[in-house]
Specification:
3-stranded parallel beta sheet, about 45% helix, globular
Length: about 260
């Protein structure tokens, strides 16, 4: 049972991937990060000596402080941030407890160097699912450019953005998988819920509806959203809600059916 102002690894894992996810501050010392160069999904590295510089960006946000063992660094940082009015919890047991429970950890070397991404305009499935994954599990501040297919690589070069879901770039389809699968593998985010969601996305995006019965529905809703919105960014915001709901289905509701009235023949 977590103590006052603490959160357990299991509790934090339930929040990551949802709109209610907290800001996670990775306060580990350089030698700790060198021993295990991975990071809890969405965590941002902040030195404990630099907290005053970031406290304004945390106003009004729920925050979780993480150090190696959940001891002096995270407790001290949390106490300091509370003097600025920030609501902070400490991860019980720190990064070591998170890793010991087999929860996802992303290699720091694979994390994007920029928050700016670019892909083809008029998105349908992968080009909405991938931004959702990035914002919910990698970089909540990520921004997305939707441009003409012929201009994606040139825009990426000129604006220092990361291209995705086009041919010839690292973040694209690989073998039987779609770009969503590639990102899951690259950032080592595999969980039963994300794997279940990935199967539906792959089936819909590659027109293999026999892989998952939900694929046809995802395709239909995705096409409908693309017809509802002329603005790709507005469509992305609507799509975020769609994938939030699908993630909760994949995590908590995948075995729930619906049969009403129950007495029908």
């Amino acid at each position: 049972m977590p103590g006052p102002n603490q959160i357990s690894p299991a509790q934090l894992a339930r929040l990551i991937g949802t709109p209610d996810a907290p800001v996670i501050l990775d306060l580990r010392l350089p030698e700790d990060t060198a021993d295990d160069p991975r990071r809890i999904p969405t965590a941002r590295a902040v030195a404990h000596s630099a907290l005053d510089a970031v406290q304004h960006s945390l106003a009004g946000r729920r925050v979780v402080a993480v150090c190696q063992r959940g001891a002096k660094l995270s407790h001290g940082a949390a106490a300091l941030l509370r003097t600025h009015g920030v609501v902070v919890e400490v991860l019980e047991g720190g990064a070591q407890a998170w890793a010991a429970q087999g929860l996802p950890l992303t290699p720091i070397a694979t994390l994007p160097a920029t928050p700016l991404w670019v892909t083809r305009h008029r998105p349908k499935i992968d080009r909405i699912a991938c931004p959702w994954l990035i914002r919910r599990f990698v970089d909540p501040a990520a921004r997305f450019l939707f441009v003409a297919p012929s201009e994606v690589q040139a825009v990426a070069d000129r604006f220092a953005a990361i291209p995705f879901d086009i041919e010839g770039v690292p973040f694209s389809h690989r073998r039987e998988g779609c770009t969503f699968d590639t990102m899951l593998a690259e950032w080592q985010l595999a969980t039963p819920a994300l794997d279940r969601l990935a199967l539906v996305i792959r089936a819909a995006d590659t027109d293999q509806h026999d892989l998952a019965p939900q694929a046809a529905g995802l395709l239909a809703v995705s096409v409908g959203l693309s017809r509802l919105y002329r603005d790709d960014l507005e469509q992305l915001e609507a799509g975020m809600l769609l994938y939030d709901a699908l993630y909760r289905w994949a995590r908590d509701g995948f075995d729930e059916g619906h049969d009403w009235p129950a007495a029908r023949a």
